[in-house]
Amino acid sequence: MKNIFQSISKLGKLSKIAVLSMALMLTGQSCEDILAEQVISDIGNDYINSPVGLEDASRASYSYLRAYYAQELGMTMMQMGTDTYTQGADGGYKKYNLYNNDLDPRDRWVRDLWREFYRGINTCNAIIERGPNIEGITPAVLATRVAEAKALRAHYYFVLVQHFGGLDLRLTESFGPITEIARSTEEAVYTQVLKDYTEALPNLPKSSSEWGRYTQLAVEAMLAKVHITRATRSFGSASDYTSAEQFGKNVINNYGRSLLPDFASLWELGNDEHSEAIFSVQFDYDLLSAGGAGNRWHLYYLMEYDTQPGMSRVLAVGRPWKRLRPTNYTYNQAMVNRDVDARYDKSFRKVFYATREGTFPTTLDDSKDNITLAVGDTAIYMPGFEMSKEERAKRPYQVYTPSMYQFKQFGVLAKFLDPLRASINETRGGRDFMVTRLADIHLMVAESLIQQNKNAEALEHINVVRRRAAFSGMEADMELTTADVNMELIYDERARELLGEGHRWTDLKRWGKLVERVQMYNELGGPNIKEMHNYRPIPQGQIDLVDGGNASFPQNSGY
Known about the structure:
Layout: E1 2-3, H1 4-9, H2 13-25, H3 51-60, H4 72-78, E2 85-87, H5 95-98, H6 108-130, H7 139-164, H8 186-200, E3 210-211, H9 216-230, H10 238-254, E4 277-281, E5 324-326, H11 328-334, H12 343-347, E6 348-349, E7 351-353, E8 358-361, E9 370-373, E10 378-381, H13 389-393, E11 398-399, E12 412-413, E13 433-437, H14 438-451, H15 455-469, H16 475-478, H17 487-497, H18 504-511, H19 514-521, H20 540-544
Parallel strand pairs: 1-3, 10-11
Antiparallel strand pairs: 2-5, 4-13, 6-12, 7-10, 8-9
Helix pairs in contact: 2-3, 3-6, 6-7, 7-8, 8-9, 9-10, 9-14, 10-14, 14-15, 14-17
């Protein structure tokens, strides 16, 4: 199937200019005067009022997802400062892990997320409002494009409300700075998100020839996620769990989707459009159309391997930015039963190969003074568990175990490695980023069932995920019983299955466990985290531009 962003790159010159122009023209968000940006084309604002203009605007409305997904912004706000990941050696945003006073309303990431997603919302608003007045477009195509815009608007607002709470709930197109606004309630935002997704659903196709567009499948998956999240808010209800269960089951049963038989296949290069992927943000290896920074998650989970004895930087592993380091909870509690459960072996890189020959003094492994290597030999083995000094001494390479790990050397999550990048030091990757996949839905359905005291049925959805995770021939050993089913199991199972994929911070917040589990499992973040950290600070620039300032658009408590 054709990738929606590839379809943008294959437009004619005029259309590509128009898409870029609309990305500038259709971004008047609630209070920020972004119309001051220079439009690089003489195509006017009326371009969208034509059939081809609406098509280009529809494609452009997806591009704002790339500001969050697969970027350092999203990595920091989705994964940093949780029970599964803490800070590595590098990066300027450790405050998201430390939960200290440096995390304040002038932070770049909260500002950028707010700005870029409101730009996306305004583009969607333009499509929704202008679309019905455009001549020369068929009713069926118009209905689909408006439905996509509503689904995307819901998506942008859902991400924002999880991080910030009540928002400027803007449902009409903005043409310039607006200073007379007030924060809506969090409940009102959830109500609008559900309304948009519900209205979009019947007018979307079950599947699309352009991979990456919103479909009925993606909307039902997101409706399950919104309902299960809303259920945990003060304004939610038990019926939200019922709705999450039903939408999740629709995804599982009605679209011909299936779990891949091998967990490792999820991360195979060139396998982005597989049967388990439900909604993905698109990227490309063509650097002229790769979406700005490209997919950069290959950078963040890497340790500094290239300074170790006998090693140098290689394309197959990547450029190590050392942002995220697994916690002891990840190694010792989430990733357990590794003789049966293959997810550790298929999620982490365990072997690093020599690129230089010679005899080198050892570093972390004290079981030997030096190692002698030829190019291609194993230089480092990282089993993920402790190994005695005597056992390590038998190996002709260094063995790094969790007790040796430090800020620069630690377990490497291999899910996002991208050796198809243009060069060793190229930061822009081209892999798609999965926002949600079928195993995520199975576990959400199980969670919804547990909340309704239907543990036996929940077990079926948990076991189907666990059986797939087993080493071949050990599927029966991975199965649990009804007595094992509770929310603690869900906490751990989602950590195992979805490790590093961008769900953990919002999962912990949904469960009301962010503070508790960071205090238990993240030794750097634990001392400072407070209940206030269940929300991010509202960008100060937003508040400053509102008539009445904080009195009209109040900051989140504690910031």
